[in-house]
Write a structure and sequence with these properties.
Distance between the termini: 34 Å
Family: Belongs to the ABC transporter superfamily.
GO molecular function, one term: ATP binding
Number of helices: 8
Keywords: ATP-binding, Nucleotide-binding, Transport
Strand order of the largest sheet: 5-6-7-3-8-9
Largest sheet: 6 strands, mixed
Helix content: 25-40%
Order of helices and strands: EHEEHEEHHHEHEHEEH
Organism: Microbacterium commune
Protein name: ABC transporter ATP-binding protein
Strand content: 15-25%
CATH topology of the domain at 133-281: Rossmann fold
Length: about 280
Amino acid sequence: MQRFPPTCGSTADSLFSSLSCSSSSGSSSSVDWRVALPRTSEQSAPRIVVDDVRKQFRLRHTHSIKETALAAVRRRPLSTEFRALDGVSFEIGEGESVALLGFNGSGKSTMLKLISGVLSPDTGRVLTRGRIAGLIEVGAGFHPDLSGRENIFLNAAILGMGKKETEARFDEIVAFSEIEKFIDTEVKHYSSGMFLRLAFSVAIHTEVDILLIDEILSVGDEPFQKKCLARIRELHAKGKTLVVVSHDLDMVSRLCERGILLRDGKVRFDGPSKEAVEVMRA
């Protein structure tokens, strides 16, 4: 995933043609563009640009030497190619709340991982502007042999927070997670719900510009889900950009203003979230 505009002298399409090249090279670990995207209107520059992205995976059909030998004798394919995303393009502006919708295998989780930087596209570009926090998998970024306290500092560092910033927000993070009694327990003893509470609490107490959420709210109990949704709405009200993946269509239609419907790796609808849900259910 690219986090910076093309370098001087590269071929750029019309979206990036008016970018001027930065005199400083910049660090690849930063999530900020060194020069802003051009403004063609009063609307601020986009936070996320997905430009003709394709992503393909190889699916293996054998898992042992015996299975491989039998498949070869019977002339069966050992693997097949699966195209998760096929020429996907869209922009997400600053402060937008967007739901990525689609049935299983439509490519929505793959798209979220491309935006977060966990995966890179085979072709095309994914560009982001600002600090990203991704709640994509429960327990991701946590070390099982470290305590909850130690993992707060570890996970916060992964999200780009400094030690002093984490220390200043430590009490708030623990209080929101509601696992004070277990904060010095190794997280390998945590339940999935406790993982969720701690991971979500760290992410939302980071100074993020883009928050990515993938089905993670389905893990917690109902009171904590309501608490999380209230916090997400609060972040959105402050102008943060939200990208949400969930099978709870009623929830995302209320939470998000815009819906992007993916089907067979392509964008089939991009518009108001309630209309996107209706198209998906049709």
